[in-house]
């Protein structure tokens, strides 16, 4: 196809604009693999890019979307051939490299992961960067030495994309999951996907004490700021928190007390530039450790035409779980 449908972001007099349009094949960026995109997804970062609420996009024009799953059309990369089923997340797509909200993408073959056996392309995007990040967090906690015997684990922003997958995976692995949310109406949903307890996010929003009562052995935090400070102050001796988000801000109003008096560890999680081997490991674990029934429960499907509308919703905290975007 000489042109294809895409969500194009352009620079405007004030901010940016995002619109579904026809994109010319000749405008695709350099890459040694061209993929027919079948499914994408909606992450918090996508919402920021689509709305222009943060300077996520670094070049214009830009095709939005940081994740895709699809089929290789052409390849000059030795690892991939036409017909291969692949997944791509991060690597600056939708930021510095033309992204996934399009019928076609051209990327570096080194960025791709083979679609794990047993996962459909739709399943992979129901997981997406959010679920991939959640699994990287779980792997980091396991590497630290945490197990279900260590004690309860906490998940913040539990009704969101990262939180929903983290809750589902940790519960399947046998952990007692304490889910923190600001949406009381989602309590039944969180229990259905594996939460053993629900706490209101307000319990974690006040100024953090240097040390508070020990409540959990570890956790996955996608909120940051004061919430993360409180998590650290309430983590048991020798525990760890995997930090992977900043919905509440980039600051960390904490002290060294949890680290030097309780031996707590703060584990930083990055999904964008994560090396390929940990990527493969995370996707294989997602294929085995994420209950497909629960994945279905946390997923809502939209067409490409509705992406911009839902981008505003995810920033407003109106999205539960995961959104998959049907491209073809």
Automatic annotation (TrEMBL):
It comes from Bradyrhizobium japonicum. It is an enzyme of class 1 (oxidoreductase). Transmembrane segments: none annotated. This is Acrylyl-CoA reductase (NADPH). Keywords: Oxidoreductase. CDD domains: MDR_yhdh. Residues 15-325 form the Enoyl reductase (ER) domain. InterPro entries: Acrylyl-CoA_reductase_AcuI, ADH-like_C, ADH-like_N, ER, GroES-like_sf, NAD(P)-bd_dom_sf, Zn-ADH-like_protein.
């Amino acid at each position: 196809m000489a042109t294809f449908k895409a969500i194009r972001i352009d620079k405007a007099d004030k901010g940016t604009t995002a619109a579904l349009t026809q994109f010319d094949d000749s405008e695709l960026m350099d890459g040694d693999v061209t993929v027919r995109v079948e499914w994408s997804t909606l992450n918090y970062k996508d919402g920021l890019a689509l709305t222009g609420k943060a300077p996520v996009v670094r070049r214009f024009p830009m095709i939005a979307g940081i994740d895709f799953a699809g089929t290789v059309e052409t390849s000059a990369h030795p690892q991939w051939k036409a017909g291969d089923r692949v997944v791509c997340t991060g690597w600056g797509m939708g930021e510095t490299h033309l992204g996934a909200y399009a019928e076609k993408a051209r990327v570096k073959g080194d960025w791709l992961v083979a679609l794990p056996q047993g996962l459909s392309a739709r399943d992979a995007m129901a997981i997406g960067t959010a679920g991939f990040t959640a699994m990287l967090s779980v792997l980091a906690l396991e590497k630290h030495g945490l197990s279900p015997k260590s004690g309860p684990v906490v998940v913040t922003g539990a009704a969101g994309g990262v939180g929903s997958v983290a809750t589902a995976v940790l519960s399947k692995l046998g952990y007692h999951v304490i889910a923190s949310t600001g949406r009381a109406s989602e309590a039944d949903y969180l229990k259905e996907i594996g939460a053993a307890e629900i706490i209101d996010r307000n319990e974690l929003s006040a100024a953090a004490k240097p040390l508070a009562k020990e409540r959990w052995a570890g956790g996955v935090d996608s909120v940051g700021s004061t919430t993360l400070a409180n998590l650290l102050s309430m983590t048991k001796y020798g525990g760890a928190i995997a930090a992977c988000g900043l919905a509440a801000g980039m600051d960390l109003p904490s002290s060294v007390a949890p680290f030097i008096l309780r031996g707590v560890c703060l584990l930083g999680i990055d999904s964008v530039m994560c090396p390929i081997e940990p990527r493969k490991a995370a996707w294989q674990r997602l294929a085995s450790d994420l209950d497909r029934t629960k994945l279905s429960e946390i997923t809502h499907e939209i067409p490409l035409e509705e992406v911009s509308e839902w981008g505003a919703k995810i920033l407003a905290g109106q999205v539960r779980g995961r959104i998959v975007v049907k491209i073809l």
